[in-house]
Design goal:
disordered C terminus, globular, 371 residues, 7-stranded parallel beta sheet, two-stranded antiparallel ribbon, alpha/beta, homodimer, 16 helices, 9 strands
């Protein structure tokens, strides 16, 4: 499939193969900062209606690609589709984000959990993948994704977002047996879901570990990292196309655990903006590609200031060399308050400056003090 | 003053001198998890009324010491007293935390900022310090504190807490000149405020950098770390008692910047629960004492489970040796939902197990994998 791509720079960077410039895409690139997204969303009804309509999900997936020369598309969906398919009843309340009607509150709830069949119970996602893949026509690769087993568990036990995730952290200390069972089911569900996305046409996969950074050291390794490793092992061992698809893992707040994260079999590591990209590269860049890590809030500045911050990130990574790979991205999802002009400046500067880096010797990877 | 203390284990640990056991106190130890606190608070009126009444502030400061053999007391106050004294109008709205009536929204607001005179404009804090110090009667040392310059600026610009601190992060990228001026004033204000607390009787100081972890690498060093260094330099160079008082800095989410933090002249470094204590000690433990770092949510478990988690932290730090120091604490403030029995188990286990560690060779500092 890769050979039919008109632009495979993203996949090559993930495989740590040479690229002519640094490929770029943005987390939540199809989203509320775009007026055309808001228009489609208004036509669709709710956010979930939009996710469940493959034509409209495809429409919003394509919108940022029409505006900006991005190097990858990402499936428009939600990270919580799996627990919804498990029967927890996902809904979105105004201003409060995702909620579940039937969170897991006790041992009986845990005992009822089962791995959903992706084609049967998450068919709308697979239809969206197929529709988007066709619409892309080989222009850029399509990324499929899921929440990490731990991150799904956070929402499943809390019943939604939380300021302190007290319920699941209490479960971790009081009933680790229950948490272990949830994570076991989630890991198998995520693996099956991601494999199905690849079968439907996804050409790379990303695991969003949004809440791994909440965990104590030691517990992160046991409760977030190990289930992600299990997901990747299942994908690799499945004997299907998913066995060779590039996988990106992204633990927000995971900067202290880069060595651990580099060892779970993923191809690339997403970094948030608190981590020094050059230092991370010096440490693990010969083992795994890097994705990131511009502060999304830097896009609140003027386009010229945005370009300066983009160069700062590219300088931190340094001159690309054999066996290393970098995909430019934000360190977290783009803010709804971002001006599209700032995104245009970002994408243009990534491409222009990274081409210039390759053409002439520039600043090298800054393992040292940031500026 | 130290010589008149009945229990100076906390101060000795901060100075990396030998102690018979690991001293312990808890961030927010005077707080809502104690029924006697809730009773005093109800008598006082609002939270700010409680902070501003030195007799009642003293009463709640002493309450946890009556229940548990803690090794330090901490002034009962708020981290936002300084911007309130600057005229921003601090208030607390139900369920929303601290707010300012007059946040800093423009250049004119920045130009008006001035360093408050601590005795004249924050006299109620100094009265509370004197009253508490007298009530303590040398039982344990009294800790004074302030928010860090950056953390104060976050609330001053946002007008309260925020999910993304978009306003101040936008200022950072668009108008770094304004942010620099705010931080300059804040650093001088924090230094004057902390020096006044020492003059009034505080025997150690803590700087709470609650939001330093929001910053991009490089920006943390410029916008959070450098102003904290300025505070400490002012304290050290002031020629008063504050020149020699132990200072603890605590950047929540600062685990990636331990080397930077160890170099700003503080005596001890507070660590949140995501950092591996043994690894941090191996890296910087001969330069600076450590404070932390039990996950506050581990206190949601049964007392026996709490004891196990306490031992895990003490084992991670390992056997105390010459030139190293550890103060046991949580990695963040105690939750209002904590059972006092869990705190009793924590304090007892810290004292008992750390005495046993000193008496017999135990597990050594675990720079390696957590468990």
């Amino acid at each position: 499939m890769t050979t039919s791509l008109q632009n495979d720079s993203f996949l090559r960077a993930l495989r740590r193969e040479p690229t002519e410039y640094t490929p770029v895409w943005l987390m939540r690139q199809a989203g509320r900062y775009l007026p055309e997204y808001r228009a489609t969303r208004a036509r669709a009804g709710s956010f979930l209606d939009l996710c469940r309509n493959d034509e409209l999900a495809c429409e919003v997936t394509m919108q940022p690609l029409e505006r900006f020369p991005l190097d990858a598309a990402i499936l428009f969906s939600d990270i919580l589709t799996i627990p919804d398919a498990m029967g927890l009843g996902l809904y979105f309340s105004e201003g409060e984000g995702p909620r579940f009607e039937r969170p897991i509150v006790d041992e009986a709830g845990v005992a009822q959990l089962a791995v959903p069949d992706p084609e049967a119970e998450l068919g709308y996602v697979m239809r969206a993948v197929r529709t988007i893949r066709q619409a892309l026509g080989g222009r850029v690769p399509l990324i499929g994704f899921s929440g990490s087993p731990w991150t799904l568990a956070c929402y499943m036990v809390e019943g939604g977002g939380s300021s302190d995730y007290r319920r699941i952290r209490t479960m971790l200390y009081r009933r680790p047996d229950l948490l272990a069972r949830i994570l076991e089911v989630n890991a198998d569900a995520v693996a099956a879901y991601l494999a199905a996305q690849v079968a439907a046409g996804a050409q790379a996969l990303m695991i969003f570990d949004t809440w791994g950074g909440l965990l104590a050291d030691g517990h992160f390794q046991s409760w977030s990292l190990a289930p992600m490793r299990r997901v990747i092992e299942r994908l690799r061992g499945g004997g299907s196309e998913a066995a060779s698809v590039p996988v990106i893992v992204f633990t927000k707040g995971g900067g202290q655990w880069l060595d651990d994260l580099a060892g779970i079999g993923a191809d690339a590591l997403g970094l948030d903006w608190t981590t020094r990209l050059g230092a991370a590269r010096a440490r693990i860049g010969d083992r795994i590609a890097m994705q990131g890590n511009l502060d999304p809030m830097s896009l609140m500045a003027d386009p010229e200031q945005v370009r300066g911050q983009v160069r700062r990130v590219l300088d931190s990574y340094g001159q690309p060399t054999a066996g290393h790979g970098h995909v430019f991205n934000l360190g977290h999802g783009i803010s709804q308050f971002t001006a599209p002009e700032a995104v245009a400046a970002l994408v243009d500067e990534v491409h222009a400056y990274s081409r210039a880096q390759r053409a002439a010797p520039g600043p090298v990877s800054d393992g040292g003090e940031g500026s």
